[in-house]
Design goal:
This protein is of the alpha/beta class. It is built from 22 helices and eleven strands. About 60% of the residues lie in helices and about 10% in strands. The C terminus is likely disordered.
C-alpha cells in the first residue's frame, strides 16, 4: 500500500494539474492549533446555514431533501480537500436549479445523478486541459445577465410553496409556469402564506438585530415552531412540511421526512427515474442526458471560479483555477454514488465562511462533517420545517442573486453594446434556458467586440510626407496600418492599398502597430502585395512584430530582391526606399498596363 502511495506522489510532478493545491499549500505554510480552531468555528457556522439551504435547493430541483444534504456532505468535503481555493465552500447552489429541475422532471433523481457524473467527468477534463484560465473570457454582462435571469426563475418557482398553491403539473418553461401559477391562484392557503411571510420577515430583520446567529437558523426554527403551534392549537389548519411532502422506504416500511442515516453507496442509475422505478443505464439515456450534463459542467465551472475569485478578494490570496475545476469534477463524480447531485462553489456560503474566520479548506470540510452529524442526530426534527419557510429562504437567495442595484448600475453606465448583451442574456435565461443564454451572449459579445476592433483598426496613406520622418522621396508612398489585422478589420485596413497610384516605385507598409494577424488579414495583405508587384512597385514592410512576421514568413513572404524587404523601423524603411529610388534611372517611365494610353 505504501509503495502504491509513493508511486502516486512521484507521479504528481509529471501532471500538468495537481489536485489539492490549496490544502497542500496551507499545510506547507504551517498550520497551527489556532488556525484549526478558527476553521472549525467557521465550518460550524457555515454548516448551520448549509443545512436548510441544501434541503431547500434539493426540493427546488425536484428531488427529496436528503439528496441535497448528501451533496453538501460528499461533494462539499471532497471539493474542499482536492480543489484549488483555500476557503471556497461547495454544495448545491441556486444557480443550478434552472438546469436540474427539468432533468429531475424527465428522468427522476437517477437521471439527475447520472447527469452529474457526466458533468463531473467534463469538469475533470477541463481542469486537466488547463481550461480554467479560458473562463475569464466570459464577459461580465453575460454572467450578470444570466445570474439575474436565474434569480427570476428561482423566485417564480417558490411562489407555489410560499402561497400554498395546488398545481397539478408545473410546466418546464417560464411563461407557461407563470400562466399555471395564475390559474392556481384561487387555491392559495392563508396558513402557508402567513408562515412564509413570517419567515421572510425574520430573514430580513434578524441580520439587523444580531449577526452572530445565522438568520436562516433563527427564521426556519421560528417558522417551524409557529407552524407546529398553529396546526396543533387551531382546528382545521394544515401546513405543508417536509414530512408531509416527502417519504422514504426502510426495510419495506414507508416513513416521512428525511432519513436518519448517512449517505450510503449506490449506483446512480439504480436510483428512481421519473416513474419511480430504477432508472437503468443505456446508450440512449446517455445521448439524451448529455446536453444537460454539458450545461451543468459549464455553469459549474463558471460559478465555482467566480466564487473562488470573490474569495480571493476577501482573503488576499489567489486560487488555482485548473486545480479547482479538477476538485469540482471529482466531487461531482463521487457524490452521485452516494445519492448526491451537482455541486459547485457557493458564493454566499463562501463569504459566510470567510467572515466567520475560515483560513483553509479544513473549514469547508468541517461544514460537511457538521451536516453529516445533523443528519444523524436531528433528521426527525427536520421534517417539521414548513415548505413555505423554505420557499421564503430561497426567495431571499434569489433576491441576493439578482443584484438588482448592480444590474441597474450596468444599465445606466455601460456602453450600449454591453447593455444589449446584458438584456439579451437576462431575457433568454428567463424565457428559454441558461445554455441558450450563455451561448448567445458570448457570441453576441464577441461580435460586438470585433466590431469595436474593426472601428479602431484601419490604414493611412501618406504620399509625400511621413508624420514622424518628414518628406518622403519622390515615388515613395508610406502606408500605415493600425490595430490587429484580423477578419473583422482586414478589408477596411487594406482597402486604400488597392488604390495606390501606379507611379509609386516603392511602397512602405508600416505594421509596427499591428499586434496580430489572422488568415483573413494575411489574404488581404497578399492580395494588396500582388497588386503592387503587378504594378512593378517594390514593397518594404516596416516594424513587423513577432506574430505577424511569423505568419508572413510561413506564407512564403520572405525577402526578395526588387520585390520585398523587411526593416525593423520606419526610418530604416525610408532610407532603403531612398536608395531603391536612387538606383532606378529617372528617365525610366512608370509602368503602364497594356492597352492603356500614355
Amino acid at each position: 500500500m505504501r509503495k502504491r502511495y509513493n508511486a502516486m506522489v512521484e507521479m504528481l510532478p509529471r501532471l500538468r494539474v495537481k489536485p489539492a493545491t490549496a490544502l497542500r499549500a496551507t499545510l506547507a505554510a504551517g498550520y497551527s492549533k489556532s488556525d484549526l480552531r478558527a476553521d472549525v468555528m467557521a465550518g460550524l457556522v457555515v454548516g448551520v446555514v448549509a443545512l436548510p439551504l441544501s434541503m431547500a435547493l434539493a426540493i427546488a430541483s425536484g428531488v427529496p431533501p436528503q439528496h441535497g444534504l448528501y451533496t453538501a456532505i460528499i461533494a462539499g468535503a471532497l471539493i474542499a480537500a482536492l480543489g484549488g481555493s483555500r476557503v471556497q465552500v461547495s454544495g448545491p447552489t441556486a444557480a443550478f436549479v434552472v438546469l436540474l429541475a427539468p432533468v429531475a422532471a424527465r428522468y427522476g433523481v437517477g437521471g439527475l445523478c447520472v447527469a452529474s457524473v457526466i458533468a463531473g467527468v467534463m469538469l475533470v477534463a477541463m481542469g486537466a486541459a488547463g481550461f480554467g484560465s479560458l473562463l475569464q473570457f466570459v464577459p461580465h454582462p453575460v454572467t450578470t445577465g444570466f445570474t439575474a435571469g436565474i434569480a427570476v426563475v428561482i423566485g417564480t418557482l417558490q411562489v407555489k410553496d410560499f402561497l400554498g398553491l395546488t398545481v397539478e403539473h408545473m410546466p418546464e418553461h417560464f411563461i407557461e409556469r407563470v400562466v399555471a401559477l395564475g390559474h392556481a391562484a384561487h387555491t392559495a392557503r392563508l396558513a402557508d402564506l402567513l408562515i412564509g411571510a413570517f419567515t421572510l420577515a425574520v430573514l430580513i430583520v434578524w441580520p439587523r438585530i444580531d449577526k452572530r446567529l445565522p438568520a436562516p437558523l433563527v427564521a426556519l426554527t421560528l417558522g417551524a415552531l409557529a407552524a407546529f403551534a398553529a396546526t396543533h392549537l387551531i382546528d382545521g389548519i394544515t401546513i405543508d412540511t417536509i414530512a408531509s411532502r416527502f417519504t422514504y422506504v426502510v426495510d419495506g416500511v414507508t416513513k416521512h421526512g428525511v432519513p436518519q442515516a448517512p449517505p450510503l453507496p449506490v449506483l446512480p442509475w439504480l436510483l428512481p427515474g421519473a416513474d419511480g422505478a430504477p432508472l437503468g443505464l443505456s446508450l440512449q439515456l446517455l445521448r439524451d442526458i448529455l446536453p444537460s450534463a454539458f450545461a451543468i459542467a459549464m455553469l459549474g465551472a463558471i460559478e465555482s471560479l467566480l466564487s473562488a475569485t470573490v474569495a480571493d478578494g476577501m482573503i488576499g490570496a489567489k486560487h488555482d483555477s485548473n486545480a479547482e475545476l479538477l476538485g469540482q469534477g471529482i466531487g461531482n463524480i463521487v457524490a452521485p454514488f452516494f445519492g448526491g447531485f451537482a455541486a459547485t462553489g457557493a458564493i454566499a456560503r463562501t463569504a459566510t465562511s470567510v467572515r466567520s474566520g475560515a483560513r483553509s479548506p479544513i473549514a469547508a470540510m468541517t461544514h460537511a462533517l457538521f451536516v453529516l452529524a445533523a443528519v444523524l442526530v436531528i433528521a426527525p426534527l427536520v421534517g417539521y420545517l414548513p415548505m413555505a419557510s423554505l420557499a421564503a429562504l430561497l426567495l431571499i437567495v434569489a433576491w441576493n442573486m439578482s443584484e438588482v442595484r448592480h444590474f441597474g448600475h450596468i444599465l445606466r453606465v455601460a456602453p450600449r453594446a454591453d447593455v444589449v448583451v446584458l438584456l439579451a442574456c437576462f431575457v433568454l435565461t428567463v424565457v428559454f434556458d441558461m445554455v441558450i443564454s450563455v451561448t448567445a451572449g458570448v457570441m453576441l459579445a464577441a461580435l460586438l467586440f470585433m466590431r469595436r476592433m474593426a472601428d479602431i483598426s484601419g490604414g493611412r496613406l501618406e504620399e509625400s510626407h511621413s508624420p514622424t520622418h518628414g518628406p518622403l522621396p519622390k515615388g515613395v508612398l508610406h502606408y500605415s496600418i493600425d490595430g490587429p489585422l484580423f477578419f473583422g478589420a482586414a478589408q477596411k485596413a487594406m482597402g486604400a492599398l488597392h488604390d495606390v497610384a501606379r507611379t509609386a516605385r516603392v511602397v512602405i507598409i508600416e505594421v509596427a502597430d499591428v499586434p496580430a494577424m489572422d488568415a483573413t488579414g494575411l489574404v488581404a495583405l497578399e492580395s494588396a502585395l500582388a497588386k503592387l508587384w503587378k504594378d512593378k512597385a517594390k514593397v518594404i514592410i516596416a516594424g513587423a512584430q513577432a506574430q505577424p512576421r511569423a505568419v508572413l514568413e510561413r506564407a512564403g513572404l520572405v525577402p526578395e530582391a526588387g520585390k520585398l524587404k523587411y526593416t525593423a523601423t520606419l526610418g530604416e524603411a525610408i532610407e532603403a526606399a531612398r536608395a531603391a529610388v536612387a538606383a532606378v534611372p529617372q528617365s525610366q517611365p512608370p509602368h503602364v498596363e497594356p492597352n492603356q494610353p500614355v
